[in-house]
Write a structure and sequence with these properties.
Layout: E1 8-11, E2 18-22, H1 33-40, E3 44-48, H2 65-78, E4 84-89, H3 91-102, E5 107-113, H4 122-135, H5 138-148, H6 151-156, H7 158-170, H8 173-184, E6 199-204, H9 212-221, E7 226-230, H10 237-240, H11 242-253
Helix pairs in contact: 1-11, 2-3, 4-8, 5-7
InterPro entries: AB_hydrolase_1 (IPR000073), AB_hydrolase_fold (IPR029058), AB_hydrolase_sf (IPR050266), PcaD/CatD (IPR026968)
Pfam family, one: Abhydrolase_1
GO molecular function: 3-oxoadipate enol-lactonase activity
Length: 257
């Protein structure tokens, strides 16, 4: 499948080291708003909508993690960026893992949040894709957003949760299903030892979608990887614990004072 010309937003000083931010399944580049201001003081920040999400076009048929990685390479080439720090959450983290293993010369440092090298449950992902195609992503929104935040956070932030639910519902049905297929078929366990980029792995302690044991396995498979668990936090840990995650990103990417 040819690369998708994904929609991207670029912020921060020209000539600064580049940080590329890759979103979760069902989210858009807007999920990184809590981190952008601090990162853009020191980095050239590139956010993009994963294929089939936000303002990026949707492919025809099922995607693979290689397709997602190819989209990132095409974006970096389009922006004339030879190398970037790569930060990804959930499917964005899976994309970062594959890119770092397959194209190590393009990845400086890597941060993987609330993600997995082997999500498992391929039947469940096929079912989710089928639901998106037959009933629309709105049929999935309530269950998905229920895994994104802890109950206490959701209760305290109803407007934010409602906005995220609307984002899922607004996702292109075929694009969402296509990316579900990529997650369901994913198995990067034998590629982790090929990753040479300095890596930070971040877990949400209360993540029901991809619990901390998934991130523990990633950190164990990458030589020298650091593992951080933030709490309380479910799947979208960068929103639930914005300062903790932002500080960790700045420290790992070399931007901390």
């Amino acid at each position: 499948m040819p690369p998708i010309d994904v929609h991207a937003v670029v912020e921060g000083p020209e000539g600064a080291p580049v940080v590329l931010l890759s979103n979760s399944l069902g989210a858009t580049l807007e999920m990184w708003e809590p981190q952008v201001a601090a990162l853009a003081e020191r980095f050239r920040v590139v956010r993009y909508d994963t294929r089939g999400h936000g303002r990026s076009p949707s492919p025809e048929g099922d995607s693979t993690v290689d397709d997602l990685a190819d989209d990132v390479l095409a974006l970096l080439d389009r922006l004339r960026i030879p190398q970037a720090h790569v930060v990804g959450l959930s499917i964005g983290g899976m994309t970062g893992l594959r890119l770092a293993a397959r194209n190590p010369e393009r990845v400086d440092r890597l941060v993987v949040l609330c993600s997995s090298a082997y999500p498992g449950n391929p039947d469940a992902w096929r079912d989710r894709a089928a639901t998106a195609r037959t009933q629309g992503t709105g049929a999935l929104a309530e269950a998905v957003v229920g895994r994104w935040f802890t109950p206490a956070f959701a209760e305290a932030n109803p407007e934010l949760v409602a906005r995220m639910r609307e984002t899922i519902t607004a996702s292109d049905d075929e694009g969402y299903a296509s990316c579900c297929a990529a997650v369901g078929a994913l198995d990067l366990r034998d590629q982790l030892d090929a990753i040479t980029a300095p890596t930070l792995v971040i877990s949400g302690a209360d993540d029901p979608a991809l619990p901390p044991e998934h991130q523990q396995a990633i950190a164990a498979g990458i030589r020298g990887a650091a593992l951080l668990t933030v709490a309380p936090a479910a799947h979208i840990a960068n929103i639930e614990q914005p300062q903790h995650v932002t500080d960790a990103l700045l420290a790992h990417l070399g931007g901390a004072a």
